[in-house]
Specification:
Structural class: alpha+beta
Largest sheet: 6 strands, antiparallel
Low-confidence stretches: none
CATH architecture of the largest domain: Sandwich
Number of domains: 2
Mean pLDDT: 77
Helix content: 10-25%
Length: 193
Amino acid sequence: MKRLMFITILCAFMAGPTMADIYPFSDTIDFSADGSATFDGTTHDYTAVDCPDDTPFSYTHNLVGLDPPAEAFLDATLYVTHAKNLAGSNSYELWFIADSASQKIGDLSKSQNPNKWVNDQFDVTNLITGSGANWSLQIMVDEEQWNPTISPNGLTMFLAESTVAGNYVPVPAAVVLGILGLGVAGWKLRKFA
C-alpha cells in the first residue's frame, strides 16, 4: 500500500508541470514625450531618441503582479515601433536593441527615406529576469555607427511604442500541494488509528 501511495504521489508531481495551464502576458510602453507624427497615414505619439556621447536610451518593461506568479516563460517577443531610422545606409546610422548587459538583441529596420512607422520583432524569451509575480526586461536603444560629417552627435530616431508579450507557466498551485498533503496525512492517520 505504501508503494502504491508513493507511486501515486510521484506521478502527480511529475504530471503537474505537463498539465499546467499556460498564461499570456503583455506589457506596453507608449513613448509620447516629444509629440506626434503621421507617416503613410499612420499617427503615433513618440519620443525623439538621440544618443550623443554614446549614452544609450534605456527603458524597462516591468512585469509586476503576474497572477498567478510565473515559474518560467515559454516565449516572449519584443515589438518596437519606430520611425526615422536610416539603418546604416551610407553609414549614417544603425540603431540597435540590447539588453541590460549590453548584449545585442538585433538591429532596427530602416524606417526613413521615406519616413514610415515600422514594427520590429525580437525574441527575448531568455532575457526576462526575476521570479514569482515580479519580472522585468531592461532594454537599451543605441546608435552603432553614423557619419559624423553629417551629424556630429548622430541622428534622431522616433520611438513610438515597445511591447513585450508571450506566454508563461505559473508556479505550481498551493491548492494541489495542500490536497496531496492532506491526503497523505489522512491516509497515515487511518493506517495508525
